[in-house]
Amino acid sequence: MAVRVLLTDDHALVRQGLKLLLSQDPELEVVGEAGNGQEALEKAEQLKPDVVLMDLLMPVMDGLTAIGELRERLPEIEVIALTSVLEDASVVQAIKSGAIGYLLKDTQALDLCASIKAAAQGRVQLSPEAAARLVREIRPHPRADDIGLTEREMDVLKLVAAGHSNHQIAESLSIQESTVKTHVSRLLSKLGVKSRTQIAVHAWQAGLLPRP
User: Fold this and answer.
1) pLDDT of 20-78, one tens digit each?
2) Third-level CATH fold of 144-205
3) Cα-to-chain-centroid distance, residue 149
4) Is 45 left (phi over 0), alpha (psi -120 to 50) or beta?
5) By three-state DSSP, how is residue 123 classified?
6) Which terminus of the chain has fewer Cβ atoms in its 10 Å neighbourhood, N or C?
7) If you ran DSSP here, which 8-state letter would residue 1 be given?
8) Which ranges in the chain are annotated with CATH 3.40.50.2300?
9) What is the distance between the alpha carbons of residues 64 and 178, in angstroms, rounded to a whole number?
């Protein structure tokens, strides 16, 4: 089944270009378009896409606000910030709001398609430039054992941070995929975060994995 994608950008020409680009991949299906964050929320509730590509600078409702609202209302939908803005504050706020990825508009076509499919599987997608800026803002975090993570939750945390999907984690740990989902939900709750990307940031902060 194709990954269902909602395009959000206030420039119609950009949306048309993205739609044409993504239509070349049979594993992707553009199910709708939105010209601002408010419209993106409405379309997402109607269309139930798997992934939303979200510009950040838009009228009516900006992308950062829309990402936070979308994650609150429809947490099963993954959001990738796709923007020309590369500022430390924007990267950090997008991830804090719940985006699973942060890509630049000069991303190569094949890389963008691969990133959308990976995001639909729950895998973290950060451009190298965005990852570098995110790491700049990382501050020391309490050790995982100080906040009550079990050994199995630690295993799942490391694999999520390494970019593995739930299916891959289940195979690696020889457990059911439903069990992985339960562990991920508990990690989100215990760490007080909204997305798998923030789980990855925690792993970097705690020194469990090398920083990107």
Assistant:
1) 999 999 999 999 999 999 999 999 999 999 999 999 999 999 999 999 999 899 989 99
2) Arc Repressor Mutant, subunit A (1.10.10)
3) 23
4) alpha
5) coil
6) N
7) -
8) 3-136
9) 30
Q: 88-102: per-residue pLDDT in tens?
A: 788 888 888 889 889
Chain centre to alpha carbon of residue 176: 23
Amino acid at 25: D
Q: Determine the topology of domain 3-136 in CATH.
A: Rossmann fold (3.40.50)
Helix residue ranges per DSSP H, the chain: 12-22, 37-47, 63-73, 88-97, 109-120, 128-136, 151-161, 166-173, 177-191, 196-205
Residue range(s) in the chain whose domain bears CATH number 1.10.10.10: 144-205
Query: In b/e form, how buried is each residue of 9-25, taking b as 16+ CB within 10 angstroms?
Result: bbeeebbeebeeebeeb
Dist CA 137 CA 94 (whole Å): 13
- pTM flag (> 0.85): no
